Every structure is written in structure tokens, then in C-alpha cells.
Amino acid sequence: MSTASVQLPGWINYCVIPLINLVLAFFFSGLVVWAIGENPFEALQLLLVGALGRGEGIGFTLFYTTSFIFTGLSVAVAIHAGLFNIGSEGQAYLGGLGAALVALSLDRYVPWYVTMPFAVIGSALFGAACAAIPAWLQAKRGSHIVITTIMFNFITSSLMNYLLVHLLIVPGKMAPETRTFLPGGQLPKLDWLIALFGGKLGAAPLNFSFLIALVMCFLVWVLVWRTKLGYEMRTLGVSPSAAVYAGIPYARIVMIAMLISGGLAGMMALNPVMGASGRLQIEFVGGAGFVGIAVSLMGRNHPAGIVLSALLFGILYQGGAELSFDMPSITRDMIVVIQGLVILFAGALEYMLRPAIVRLYQQVGGGR
Amino acid sequence: MDYFDILISILGSAIRLSIPLLFTALAGLFSERAGIFDIGLEGKMLASAFAAACVAHLTADPWLGLLAGILVSIAVSLIHGFASITNRGNQIVSGVALNFVAAGLTVVLGQAWFGQGGRTPQVPTEGRFSSIILPGADAVRGVPFIGPLYANVISGNNILTYIAFLMVPLSWWVLYRTRFGLRLRAVGENPGAVDTAGISVTWLRYRALIVTGFLAGFAGTYLSIAQSAAFISNMSAGKGYIALAALIFAKWKPVPVMFACLLFGFLDAFANFMQGKSVPLIGEVPVQIFQALPYILTCILLAGFIGIARPPKAGGVPYTKER
What is residue A61's predicted lDDT score, i.e. its pLDDT? Predict the structure, then answer.
């Protein structure tokens, strides 16, 4: 009998296999570290201490985590509808424009908690707008969503660079960025959250958007598993022909799923733009959209898994920065390698070990 | 400087800018026609650029650099094959992953080996592909129109440029006039039929990916030791994706691929030329428009407004033999 058709219990599918894949990815990353003449275990220790050792480190780790939760959710929502959204990067970039426009126009008049809901809506709308054309092309014209979202990453990047260099720049300044928002346009730091555990946030930019991200996790869970729309999306994701046969409108669901996905990606901009730097800067997304792919794959497209894997990548980003400080021969780009290996093993090679695990499971006696 | 001279200089730079696109798009052509989506062209380009620069720096021999570039690119291609053919993984996920690994690993290794922030050391002049003056270029330079065109656009390029243009008819011949090409196209449309005819789908697709790696190796080598004289971190700067756009724009056909790459190369050269210049009546045209134009054109094409781009039918679908 083929091993592909054997049902494995949930704890193997959702815990054991992702963990083994993760271990493999780290094993190969360790090989790279070893190959350039450093001690992988020492590197791992420095990385963990850098990410979790002090309150400030934790603050940075959670700051990165926040961005990755947003982009991870964005990718996951699209995947549930059977769509692969590679455009989170561009959608987040355009989302930054929405957040910045709201902050720039309101920060003089109202306190931050009045600005915030408008900024959430603004960033989500702009992110969704960036996903709208690829979504329409997929729904109505049958163009492949992967290709069009890649194209839109570049189109958005050109558009935003133009806007920042020519229109949004502060006259007389060299740096292509907007003016710094007043406190009314900035999200407050979460000092109290770290203080709760006896640490000090210091200069770390952990801010209110972390809580927004957690709320979004819950909302996405409700949407995907507890609503009619979520059911229709998942049906479409499993089998488009069955969905159409069951009377689910293909074009409508594709549009809605992509708009939600784009909106979630757009909200990621709240974190760096309104939470950390307090202004819209060029290339502020910095690859977080692509990390979202890894986060979603690692987290098995479930909000709880996404929080955990976003935390993992947050640790990698913060710890990696500290590591490159302590071990100059390992640059920050090591994170990119680890990220790539995680996507490779948790995503593309996710079935590589399955036959072996199935055989082991049957031998141990659980199967049949 | 009169308009003709300007045109000549733009055309010359358009050719130089389109060569890496051409190699990469032809590379993508082979894998996509065999039914394997390849988002990982960018990564192959980077990895081979790095390998070529390292070897050319050490040996001062551009041909050994090219060989290293090709071998590394084929290796990356085979990993893609292992994930997407043997393990039937998601081809797009695998491509994205390999792009990350290549982008990170080149810098990490470069920093560890040379300690120059991810750059490789300067490749000596004899280790690079330098430009070749075609016979008679200087003699005809004085002839109006054809002379400068021959002397400055057609002549004076490096050997890889001429190889790139030779690869176009060669790819066409392989795809449309050989048994391998016929089977390769068939496996991209209907792998089941190919399997029924007793031909191994797996082995055929692996061979297609080896060709892809081979061609992408030229592209990376061109970037690091022909166009410039060292590897710089992330030096492909999205060219792998533009090449993918060109491939789609050309509707997965070899000769149109060449024209699409020349068009996108021309847009790039034109954007460089227009930087900071103003057009009468319109004023300064932002360079970002030209940078975005290849992608916008491709989207319009995909929307079905300029003919229909029909991808290979079995593209992106792993082949499962047993049901």
C-alpha cells in the first residue's frame, strides 16, 4: 500500500513533521556556520541570548514578530482560498502610504487613540487596493496570481519610490521620507508589557500594533473556521471545481480573499511606520512580506501556528542582528539563509520525510 | 551630440542590459515548457555570479569562471528539481526558498572568505570577458548610419553577448526540431501522455532543469565578470523577475523571448538616459515609470489585452504516476 494515502494523527501532522523540518533547516544552517569556521552551538547560544536575554532584546524580538504576524496572516488567508499571494511585500509598502496619510492629516488635531482606527482602516484599504488588480486578473481573466503579485511588488515599489522622492519628501531634506508624525500620529510603546515581566523596554520599538496583530489573529481564526465566507474560501482552496459546483461564486470569493489578504499585509505598515520610526521611509518593509511566506508555511496557515512561527522569525531577526555583532564573520544575511532553508524544508520538501514517518508510525503499532 | 549618436549609445547600452535577461529568460523557457515553474531564476543568477567571480578572481581565467557559474547554477536547479519533481513539493515555494538561500549564502560566504562586506575582490582584467572588436569595425566607422551602428552596437561586445544571441536559434532548434524538444514540450502540456509512451517524466524534467541551470549560469557569469569586475551583494537586483516577465511577455517562445528581452533592456537603457533630463511640454519624466513599465506591460498582456498568453498546461503541477 502506498504511504501517501495513510492518515496520520493530527499531532504528527501538525507538530512532529514541522518540528523535524525545522530541525533539518537548522542543521543545514549550522553546517554553513561550521563551514565558515565558527562554532554553531556558540552561535545559537549568542543568538538566543541576544533575542531573549534582556528586556530590550525581547522588545525588538516582539517588534519583528508583530510585522511577521501581519504578513503571515496575509499569506495564510490567501492560501486558504487556494491562492498564493507573493505580493504581501508590495501590499505592505502601499499600506504604509495609507497609514502615513492618515497620520499626517490627523496627528495635529487628535490624540493617538482617535488616529489609530482610521490608520488601521487606511493601511488596510491601501494594502487591499494593491491586491485588487492581481485579484481581478485572477478572478476574471485567469492570469496566474503568483506572476501578477510579483509584478505588482515591483510596480508598487516604483510608485512608492516616486511618491517619496518627489511628493512626500520634506522640502529641503535629502532623505526620501515624510516628516516625523506628532505624538497624535504615533502608536505608544508597550513599556508596561515588558515591565510586567520585570524587564525594561529601553530603545526597542515594540508598540501598540503588537496587540492589533493579536486581535487580527483571532479575527482571522473566526473568519476562516467560524463563518460562511471562511467555509467558502476553504472549499475553493481544496477544490475550485467542487466549490463552483456547490454554487460558490468563484470570482467573488477570489476577490474577497485577496482583498482581505492585501488588507492584512497593509496593516503590517502600522508597526514600522506609526509604531517605530514615526514617519514613512523608503523600503521600510525590508522583506517582511517574504518572511510572511515562511511564517505561514511553518505555522501551517493557522493563526496559532503563525504567532509561534512569527515569534521564531522574530527571534532569528533580533538574535541574528546581535550575533553578527558578536561574531563579525557571520553577517546578518545568515538570517536570510536560515529563512530560505526553513521555507525549503517546511514548504517545498514538507513531504520528503512523510513516507519514512508513516512506516515508523505503522511499525510502532499506531497505524492500521 | 545629435540624435543619431544618442540613439547609438542607447542601443549599445540596451544590448548590454538585455543579455543577462536573455540568458535567464531562455533558461526559464526550458523549465517552464517542461512544466516546472521557476521563480528561482533570480537565485540561480546570483549563485552563479558569485561562483564565477570567485573562480575568476582565483584563477584569472574567465572560462573557468564561466564553468564554475554554470556548475553552481545547475546544482541550484537540481535542488529545485529534487524538491519539485522527486518530492512533488510546491514549485513556487521551492523557487522562493532557493532565492533566499542564494541571496543570503552568497553574502555570508563572501564575507567569510574575503571579508569585504559580501563583495568579492576585484577580478583582474585577464580574468574577465572583455569586449571584442569585430573585423572592419574601425574601417566602416566613417560610413554614415551603418558604420556607427556596426562599430558601436554590433561590434565591441564581449563573447557572452554573441553566445546569447546564438542561444536563441539554438534553443528554437532544440525545442522544435529535436526529439528531446518535442518530448520536453509534451511533458509540459500532458505528462500523462508522455508517461504512457514509455518515457520517464522525471528524467525528462530533470534534463530540462539541467538546461535551465546551464543557461542561467551564463547570465550570472555575465553579470559578475563581463558587465562588472566583481560580485556585489544582490547584484541581480530583480533581473530574474524581469526575465520571467519577458518570458511571459513572449508567450513562452524562443524568438519572441529575444525581442521581449531587447525591449525590456531598451526601456532600462532609456530610463538611464532620461534620468534628470526634461522632455519639452511634459517636463521631467520620472525614471520610476520606465522601471515599472516592463511589469505593467506584462500585467496588461496577462490580462489578455495584447493577445493571449497561454502558459504550458501542466505548469506548476507535480506529476503523480500512481492514482
Answer: 93
